[in-house]
Amino acid sequence: MCCFSQPVELVADTNIFARSANGRQFLVYSMSYATSTDLAMLLPLPVPPNPGEETVRFINLQRYPKFFDDMRRGFPPRMMPLSRSLEAISGEPPKLRVHAVGDFEASFVPRLDDFGRLDERFRIPADAWDRLPAYRDYGFAVFKLKASPSRRSAGILRRSVSKPAGDTRKPRRVHPMAFTFPRRNPELLYFPTVHIHDREVHPHALFDHMLYCQPDAAIDDSLQGWEESRMRTSEFIDIARAEGIVDPSQSCWRLPLEGRRQNKDTLVGNGGALPEFAAV
After folding, report:
1. pLDDT over threshold 80, residue 218
2. For position 228, what pLDDT does the model report?
3. Over the Cα atoms of the chain, what is R_g?
4. 22, 28, 82, 230: least surrounded by Cβ within 10 Å?
5. b (16+ CB within 10 A) / e for 49-73
6. How open is the CA angle 130-196-145, to the nearest 5 degrees?
7. Distances (CA, A) of 233 to 21, 25, 180
8. What distance in Å separates the CA atoms of residue 53 and residue 30, rounded to the nearest whole number?
């Protein structure tokens, strides 16, 4: 899933699309979330060492909020579970550039040391990253998200997340976040699925993901268990509004990633692996 700078009440229905192209990777990310405060979502990125601040190019999909709705049309309908998974300054360096990307403000943080150039509300505690040493030389795409609207209800959401009686938050869904970044390993397609939802790192997490991809030829052999789209991509994706993210000449593939699993990212390709189910 993703990492949040402040605790969230709910994260569900995560969709991620990835495509490799000319040494870079496109990535599109969407989810529903509920939170009582403004916060940031951070996506670790395996970029080459010592990246510049313009390494990541953000893409505005405000005109295409139904990107993943259309993506689903390329595949046979799935039986959905009854309830979706929940899981719940003088002398300082210059601030990181902020990009206006539709409904978001987005920044690229080249390395962990650069988080000090973000507002403190949009950082994750340093000791959390100490438990994830593999990310010490990663870059990070950071999206600032708004608090969810308030609602007072004794409905399913409050019971699911064990909230006390009183105010709850209505889940918010925003248009997909999208960008492209240079790939550290051209043989692997990367999906950011590690979870930090309460500013802590846990060994296992509850997944509620649908992964989509358009792989290059080197990765095709690693798609065992993935489902290929049943029609041409141009028949279910609005190519003009997809901003070059989707290749109309390629098939799309999908894989559900659900249940309690290792809290780690997903890598597809030579040497890659899915997060394994947690032992009961």
Report:
1. no
2. 95
3. 18
4. 82
5. eebeeebbebbbbeebbebbebbbe
6. 120
7. 17, 18, 20
8. 24
